[in-house]
């Protein structure tokens, strides 16, 4: 019997008959500002599922291990069960969002060096930014795991930048999470990669093709995600 294991802001996770496999259901909900802004959009779950499927399939084709197994419906995936490492990893190529406010640098400035940031995964604390020393002191991960996470994050960045560039899109920044497979303990990319967790700008116009259209009341979210999906479907 399938049981609800976890419900987050954008998806639900259920058990399956296999203890090492979970079923993910993408929801139509959208949130921003740590859940302070909420809305529901018809079709959002389908769009996130399709975009995430496209991205995870591409990454696995590049040799990057992920928890993704298969897409089984318009809103559902099967994934490998993991123990999530309680660190959110943000990779930044262009100044935007909180980085612009924190450093007083204009949004849109390309960084000379890609920045990798760690955040403690805690809704209660608002996911505060931490460094490697914090992570080690709190025993969130080992030194070896942190180094592997950083290497993985940069490899994911390289693959995503090329993928989006082929669609005429700038990968501004993105958030990812990692987990250790329950079956083997191996570290893999987990959670999701979607316009909910990335900033994506049109290369020519800088039109936003991500959840910032909802955060900033710029455009219709489903229409934006449909436009993004269509552009990604044209990438070979």
Q: How would you spell out the order of helices and strands? A: EEEEEHEEEHEEHHEEEHH
The DSSP helix count reads 6
Q: Tell me, briefly, the overall form.
A: globular
Average pLDDT, rounded to a whole number, is 96
User: Structural class given helices, strands, pairing?
Assistant: alpha+beta
Beta percentage is 25-35%
Radius of gyration: 17 Å
Number of strands: 13
Tell me what the structure shows:
With 236 residues, the protein is an alpha+beta fold. The chain is 30% helix and 34% strand. The protein contains 6 helices and 13 strands. The protein has helices spanning 44-61, 97-103, 132-137, 143-165, 212-215, 221-233; strands spanning 4-7, 11-15, 21-26, 29-32, 37-40, 68-71, 76-80, 82-94, 110-120, 129-130, 169-181, 187-190, 198-202. The strands form 3 sheets. Strands 8, 9, 10, 11, 12 and 13 form a 6-stranded antiparallel sheet that branches. α1 runs parallel beside α6 (221-233). GO terms for molecular function: phosphoribosylaminoimidazolesuccinocarboxamide synthase activity. It holds the Pfam family SAICAR_synt. Its EC number is 6.3.2.6. This is Phosphoribosylaminoimidazole-succinocarboxamide synthase.
């Amino acid at each position: 019997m399938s049981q609800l294991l976890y419900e987050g802001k954008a998806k639900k996770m259920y058990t399956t008959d296999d203890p090492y496999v979970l079923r993910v259901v993408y929801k139509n909900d959208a949130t921003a500002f740590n859940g302070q802004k909420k809305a529901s959009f018809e079709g959002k779950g389908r769009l996130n599922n399709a975009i995430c499927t496209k991205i995870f399939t591409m990454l696995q084709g590049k040799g990057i291990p992920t928890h993704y197994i298969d897409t089984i419906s318009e809103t559902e995936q099967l994934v490998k069960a993991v123990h999530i490492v309680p660190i959110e990893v943000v990779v930044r190529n262009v100044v935007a969002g909180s980085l612009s406010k924190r450093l007083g640098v204009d949004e849109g400035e390309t960084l000379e060096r890609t920045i990798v940031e760690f955040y403690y995964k805690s809704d209660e604390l608002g996911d505060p930014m931490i460094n490697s020393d914090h992570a080690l002191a709190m025993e969130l991960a080992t030194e070896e795991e942190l180094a592997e996470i950083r290497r993985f994050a940069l490899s994911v960045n390289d693959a995503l930048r090329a993928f989006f560039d082929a669609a005429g899109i700038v990968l501004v920044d993105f958030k990812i999470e990692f987990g250790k497979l329950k079956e083997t303990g191996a570290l893999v990319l987990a959670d999701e990669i979607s316009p909910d967790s990335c900033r994506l700008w049109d290369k020519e116009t800088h039109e936003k093709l991500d959840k910032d259209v909802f955060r900033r009341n710029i455009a219709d979210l489903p229409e934006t995600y449909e436009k993004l999906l269509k552009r990604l479907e044209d990438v070979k």
